[in-house]
Design brief:
The chain is of the alpha/beta class. Helices cover 25% and strands 32% of the residues. The protein is built from 5 helices and 7 strands. A 7-stranded mixed sheet has the order 1-7-6-2-5-4-3, covered by helices on one side. The radius of gyration is 15 Å and the shape is globular. The two termini are 16 Å apart. The protein binds adenosine-5'-diphosphate and magnesium ion. The site of adenosine-5'-diphosphate has 16 residues, from α1, α2 and β7.
Length: 159
C-alpha cells in the first residue's frame, strides 16, 4: 500500500485535487471516501465529475444509495452507503455488480471494505477545528498492480 497526506485550504483546492485524481482514474477503479458529515466527500466527487465534463452541482445519493453518471467513455457510480447497515445489505442491493461496470465512488465505504476487490483507493477526510475551510486528506492506495498507474500522481503529492 502507498500513502500520502495532503492539506486542502479551501473547497476550490478540494475540487482541483479531485480533478487531478480523476485524470488518473479509469473504468473499474474504486474510490472509498471516509469522514464525518460535511468533511468534503461529495465536494471531492464533484471535482472528479467535473474532470469528465459532468454537472457542476451534484446531488448527494444519501437517499438513493447510488447516482449514475455517464461520461463519454465511462460510467460513474456515486454511492452513499451511510444508510446501509452492513456489507451484506450492499450485496443484497446488487452493489457488487457495479464494480466492473464503471468507476465507483463510495461515500462511507469503510462499512463495505470486506466485499471490495483488492485494488482500491481509500481517502480519509479530517477537518481542522481551527479553520473551517481546511481539510486534511489521508490517501491510501491498496493493491499491488492497481497502484502502478497512480505512481506519478502519488509522487506529485508525496513529500
Ligand atoms: N477545503 C474544503 N474541502 C471541501 N469542502 C469544504 C472545504 N472547506 C469548506 N468546505 C465546505 O464543507 C462542505 C462539505 O460538504 P460535503 O462535500 O457535502 O461533505 P460530505 O459529503 O463529506 O458530507 C461544503 O459545504 C463545502 O463548501
Ligand atoms: Mg456526502
Amino acid at each position: 500500500m502507498k500513502t500520502f497526506k495532503i492539506e486542502l485550504n479551501n473547497e476550490n483546492e478540494t475540487l482541483s485535487f479531485g480533478k487531478d485524481l480523476a485524470s488518473f482514474l479509469t473504468s473499474n477503479d474504486i474510490l472509498v471516501l471516509s469522514g464525518d458529515l460535511g468533511s468534503g466527500k461529495t465536494k471531492l466527487t464533484q471535482g472528479i465529475l467535473s474532470y469528465f465534463g459532468l454537472e457542476d452541482e451534484i446531488s448527494s445519493p444519501t437517499f438513493t444509495i447510488v447516482n449514475e453518471y455517464n461520461a463519454k467513455n465511462m460510467n460513474i457510480y456515486h454511492f452513499d452507503v451511510y444508510r446501509l447497515s452492513d456489507s451484506s445489505e450492499f450485496l443484497e442491493i446488487g452493489g457488487e455488480e457495479y464494480f466492473d461496470k464503471g468507476l465507483c465512488i463510495i461515500e462511507w465505504g469503510e462499512m463495505i471494505l470486506d466485499v471490495l476487490p483488492p485494488d482500491y483507493i481509500h481517502i480519509f477526510f479530517k477537518r481542522d477545528f481551527n479553520d473551517e475551510n481546511r481539510r486534511i486528506l489521508e490517501c491510501e492506495f491498496h493493491g499491488n498492480k492497481g497502484v502502478d498507474k497512480f505512481e506519478d500522481f502519488i509522487n506529485r503529492y508525496s513529500k
